């Protein structure tokens, strides 16, 4: 395989992994700090995408669209928290799963009513259009590089926020022992709301960022949500560092797997069988990865609790 | 039975009617299902029959999930995958000209048992939320596998050449016959599950749900029992899949979407966990509500979703206990 | 392990029933179990006393298999059971009670005990017969309930029992597995005077029929019941001997009894 092609796939994997990280970071914190399993987190990603698409169309500028979408996604997340999720923190996981499942059903239908079932598309912003040359004559889109840069920047920001600030200290303490933090007199409710809103905004940001490269459609958050689950299971619930590494791992394995499995199999099988088997095996790779991780470390790579 | 003592009032006089109500619910449910085809002939018979067959088939799948959730405390979010295995066993074999229901069912049961044994062995090493997410992930794994099976329809799925044959006869081509096959299957599996949960095996699982450490201290390792239960539940759901493929004469990855797994959990919780017939009742209410709402508007999800949320928030314990009034 | 056994001679076994061989466990820098070696004879009642935080419960957890030692071995009836799981150890005849009552609250009192009987009577991979109607399980369970004065409460959900009754049930469950060794983690904790008198009477009745390792804070009970007493302080055994020997041991007096007096 030519090296440059491999490099392109690696970059795609990195970009995909960083998007996953933006979603998984909020999910793992909400989960770790509040012990709340929020299936509707993927919906935040979808809402972010729709908002960005809408505001971009209104203002005619992707950057303005993005800037308007972020606070709106945050407000929407907080609205859901106050209206529904708050009532679920004390409930068992089964109730949480079901109620947030209901939120998904409702919102998937709501966007269908508001924007139609057909996918929307958002043009790549002018300044970030075009591509840069890689080795071997291949080129790589600037916009995808922008996603990588933005993802890494948010990762760094999160790292500083979680490890260097007082709020971050509380969040980390909350993830390893929530009752203790509450006992110390911290307003845990406010901390929960803060973490929740922040997570919702990150997912919304991820959704907004992908609008120029993916189609915006109802249900787009569902598959991403499950991948984010795989990420936090592998990374260890409550660990942002774990989520970061696992997200990159999943992004790269999934992207390279889809690309390389048919190619590798063609060495032993005839081309059509190889491509068919390869396409069947590739999507299963990340689940196999998850199973293997759990066999070795049942609490993930970086368990936050104890 | 003293009628003076007030505190006793709650427990003692209610005891007899409660146990009566408890057997009344399944009797009424099954009696209703038994005579439904007779009533259906006065309406749009084929529509009603196919709807109720679907109700029973998904009730069967919900029943299998109630074994896991209601009796072992294992919230599996991947139960639809087993329905998919059953449906694809029918579809794949039929597309190769193997139409016998016996062989198709045997293949479905074997495949689901193997898949359950492997994924269960891994999933059951984890607890709580991890278990929920891992069963969900394994379900998705199978879903994506199905979408990549280009030879068997890929994303779009495939239409069955015909319904399954019974000893070489096309008995199941009659909607009524298929209805009663589903009815009898559901009834037999229900009775078998009743026995199972009351048996030594079931008692170990019910004990482990309450206090796993205590169970280990008296010599039981819950893992083995949970794994066997997981396999049994998977096989029952696969049986539902075999029937579902015959009902719709169509097999597609949507059969095992994660939303379907969520629907099944909702049926179990709606009907009332840990009663078995509650799961069937839940399936009836769920699918009929879906049908009624879909009659009003194509965007029926916008009503159904909030209803689901309200049910979780305000009807705790589900419908069956409301009828039986066994719990306060 | 060259301790002399004060337990009565037993015909069926040559060595002690339970041997802890240089057991050690740390939680971080804290040595919760520090090179503990002790034995329990086949019909001996061996009590462990020690101040709070001495590591008594952690020791019981390691013997029963709920926690793993960092080093050292646990021998039961001559066999090394250190690698066995809790369930496997229970199946070998090692039963325990819990300091915090651990029963099955939704099951009836009878079912709690019948389930323990089921644990040691053949396979539980039986799927058809109604277990709660199996006389083969219920009859022995009733015998044990009778022994603990719980028979009139047989059909009550265990969660509704009084605290003292729950402590009794806890013991009944452990005994129903027909153990060779009983590990008791503060069976008197939190009980009223009459309740503890009843439990002490029960333990006296059991004494001599099987090995018992008893952790207890109630000194009167310990001095009444124990054949031998070991004193555990900061994870270490500082003395082992008869009640009088322990009472008069200067190290014990300063480290433990002295501390209580102060």
TrEMBL record, chain A:
Alphabetical keyword list: Amino-acid transport, Cell membrane, Membrane, Transmembrane, Transmembrane helix, Transport
Transmembrane domains' residue ranges: 12-32, 39-58, 64-85, 97-122, 142-162, 190-214, 220-237, 244-269, 281-302
InterPro entries on file: ABC_transp_permease, BCAA_transport_permease
GO cellular component: plasma membrane
Compartment(s) of residence: Cell membrane
Pfam families: BPD_transp_2
KW Transport (keyword) present: yes
GO BP term, pick one: amino acid transport
Chief location bin: membrane
A molecular function (GO) term: transmembrane transporter activity
Top-level lineage group: Bacteria
The keyword ATP-binding appears for this protein: no
Bilayer topology annotation: Multi-pass membrane protein
Protein family (similarity comment): Belongs to the binding-protein-dependent transport system permease family. LivHM subfamily.
Full protein name: Amino acid/amide ABC transporter membrane protein 1 (HAAT family)
Source species of the chain: Chelatococcus asaccharovorans
TrEMBL record, chain B:
The keyword Cell membrane appears for this protein: yes
Localization per record: Cell membrane
Entry's Gene Ontology cellular component terms: plasma membrane
InterPro entries for this protein: ABC_transp_permease, LivM-like
UniProt GO MF annotations: branched-chain amino acid transmembrane transporter activity
Protein origin, superkingdom: Bacteria
Record membrane topology: Multi-pass membrane protein
Keywords of the record: Cell membrane, Membrane, Transmembrane, Transmembrane helix
Keyword Kinase set for record: no
Membrane-traversing stretches: 23-40, 46-65, 72-95, 101-122, 129-152, 177-197, 227-245, 265-288, 300-319
Name this protein carries in UniProt: Amino acid/amide ABC transporter membrane protein 2 (HAAT family)
Species in which this protein is naturally found: Chelatococcus asaccharovorans
Lineage, top ranks: Bacteria, Pseudomonadati, Pseudomonadota, Alphaproteobacteria, Hyphomicrobiales
TrEMBL record, chain C:
Matches recorded under CDD domains: ABC_Mj1267_LivG_branched (cd03219)
GO molecular function: ATP binding; ATP hydrolysis activity
InterPro entries: AAA+_ATPase, ABC_AA/LPS_Transport, ABC_transporter-like_ATP-bd, BCA_ABC_TP_C, P-loop_NTPase
Keywords tagged on the record: ATP-binding, Nucleotide-binding, Transport
GO cellular component: plasma membrane
Gene3D superfamilies hit by this protein: P-loop containing nucleotide triphosphate hydrolases
UniProt-listed PANTHER family: ABC TRANSPORTER ATP-BINDING PROTEIN (PTHR45772:SF2), CONSERVED COMPONENT OF ABC TRANSPORTER FOR NATURAL AMINO ACIDS-RELATED (PTHR45772)
The protein's name in its UniProt record: Amino acid/amide ABC transporter ATP-binding protein 1 (HAAT family)
Organism from which the protein derives: Chelatococcus asaccharovorans
């Amino acid at each position: 395989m030519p090296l440059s092609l491999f490099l392109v796939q690696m970059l795609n994997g990195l970009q995909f992994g960083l998007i996953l990280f933006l979603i998984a970071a909020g999910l793992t914190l909400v989960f770790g700090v509040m012990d709340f399993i929020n299936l509707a987190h993927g919906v935040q990603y979808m809402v972010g995408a729709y908002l960005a698409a809408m505001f971009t169309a209104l203002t005619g500028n992707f950057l303005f669209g993005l800037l308007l979408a972020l606070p709106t996604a945050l407000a929407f997340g907080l609205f859901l928290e106050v209206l529904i999720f708050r009532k679920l923190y004390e409930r068992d996981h089964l109730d949480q799963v079901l109620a947030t499942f209901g939120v998904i059903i409702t919102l998937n239908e709501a966007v269908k009513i508001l924007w139609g079932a057909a996918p929307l598309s958002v043009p790549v912003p002018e300044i970030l259009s075009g591509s840069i040359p890689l080795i071997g004559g291949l080129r790589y889109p600037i916009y995808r590089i922008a996603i990588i840069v933005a993802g890494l920047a948010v990762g760094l920001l999160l790292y500083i926020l979680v490890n260097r600030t007082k709020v971050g200290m509380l969040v980390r303490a909350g993830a390893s022992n929530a009752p203790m933090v509450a006992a110390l007199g911290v307003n845990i409710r406010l901390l929960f709301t803060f973490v929740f809103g922040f997570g919702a905004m990150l997912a919304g940001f991820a959704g907004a960022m992908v609008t120029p490269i993916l189609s915006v459609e109802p249900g787009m958050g569902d598959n991403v949500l499950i991948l984010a689950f795989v990420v936090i299971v592998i990374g260890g619930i409550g660990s942002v560092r774990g989520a970061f590494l696992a997200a990159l791992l999943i992004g790269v394995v999934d992207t390279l797997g889809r690309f390389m499995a048919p190619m590798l199999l063609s060495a032993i099988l005839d081309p059509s069988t190889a491509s068919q088997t390869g396409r069947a095996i590739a999507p299963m790779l990340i689940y196999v990865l998850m199973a293997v991780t759990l066999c070795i470390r049942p609490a993930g790579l970086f368990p936050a609790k104890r | 039975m003293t009628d003076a003592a007030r505190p006793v009032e709650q427990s003692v006089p209610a005891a007899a009617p409660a146990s009566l109500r408890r057997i009344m619910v399944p009797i009424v449910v099954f009696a209703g299902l038994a005579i439904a085809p007779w009533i259906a002939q006065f309406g749009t018979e084929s529509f009603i029959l196919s709807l109720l067959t679907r109700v029973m088939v998904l009730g069967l799948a919900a029943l299998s999930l109630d074994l896991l959730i209601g009796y072992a405390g294992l919230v599996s979010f991947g139960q639809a995958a087993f329905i998919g295995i059953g449906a694809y066993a029918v579809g794949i074999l039929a597309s190769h000209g193997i139409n016998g229901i016996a062989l198709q069912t045997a293949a479905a049961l074997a495949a689901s048992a193997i898949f359950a044994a492997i994924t269960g062995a891994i999933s059951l090493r984890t607890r709580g939320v991890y278990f929920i997410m891992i069963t969900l992930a394994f379900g998705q794994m199978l879903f994506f596998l199905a979408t990549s099976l280009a030879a068997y329809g890929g994303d779009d799925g495939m239409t069955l050449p015909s319904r399954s044959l019974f000893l070489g006869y096309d008995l199941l081509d009659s909607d009524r016959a298929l209805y009663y096959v589903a009815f009898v299957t559901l009834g037999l599996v229900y009775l078998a599950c009743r026995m199972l949960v009351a048996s030594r095996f079931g008692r170990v699982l019910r004990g482990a749900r309450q206090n796993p450490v205590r169970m280990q201290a008296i010599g039981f390792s819950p893992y083995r029992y949970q794994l066997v239960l997981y396999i049994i539940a998977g096989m029952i759901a696969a049986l539902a899949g075999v029937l579902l493929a015959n009902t719709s004469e169509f097999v597609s990855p949507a059969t095992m979407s994660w939303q379907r797994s969520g629907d099944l959990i909702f049926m179990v919780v709606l009907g009332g966990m840990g009663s078995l017939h509650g799961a069937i009742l839940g399936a009836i209410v769920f699918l009929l509500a879906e049908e009624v709402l879909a009659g009003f508007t194509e965007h029926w999800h916008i009503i159904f979703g909030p209803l689901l949320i309200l049910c979780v928030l305000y009807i705790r314990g589900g419908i069956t206990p409301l009828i039986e009034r066994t719990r306060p | 392990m060259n301790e002399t056994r004060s337990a009565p001679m037993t015909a069926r076994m040559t060595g002690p029933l339970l041997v802890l061989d240089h057991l050690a466990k740390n939680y971080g820098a804290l040595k919760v179990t520090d090179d503990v070696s002790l034995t329990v004879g086949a019909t001996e009642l061996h009590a462990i006393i020690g101040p709070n935080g001495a590591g008594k419960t952690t020791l019981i957890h390691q013997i029963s298999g709920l926690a793993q030692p960092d080093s050292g071995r646990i021998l039961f009836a001559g066999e090394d059971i250190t690698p066995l799981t809790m369930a496997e150890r229970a199946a070998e005849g090692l039963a325990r009670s819990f300091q915090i009552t651990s029963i099955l609250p939704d099951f009836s009192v009878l079912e709690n005990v019948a389930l323990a009987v089921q644990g040691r009577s053949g396979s539980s991979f039986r799927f058809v017969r109604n277990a709660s109607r199996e006389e083969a399980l219920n009859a022995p369970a009733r015998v044990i309930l009778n022994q603990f004065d719980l028979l009139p409460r047989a059909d009550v959900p265990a969660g509704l029992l009084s605290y003292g009754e729950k402590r009794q049930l806890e013991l009944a469950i452990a005994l129903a597995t027909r153990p060779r060794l009983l590990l008791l983690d503060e069976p008197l904790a939190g009980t009223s005077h009459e309740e503890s008198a009843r439990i002490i009477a029960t333990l006296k009745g059991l004494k001599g029929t099987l090995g018992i390792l008893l952790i207890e804070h109630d000194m009167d009970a310990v001095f009444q019941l124990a054949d031998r007493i070991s004193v555990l302080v900061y994870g270490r055994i500082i003395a082992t001997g008869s009640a009088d020997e322990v009472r008069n041991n200067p190290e014990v007096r300063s480290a433990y009894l002295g501390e209580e007096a102060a």
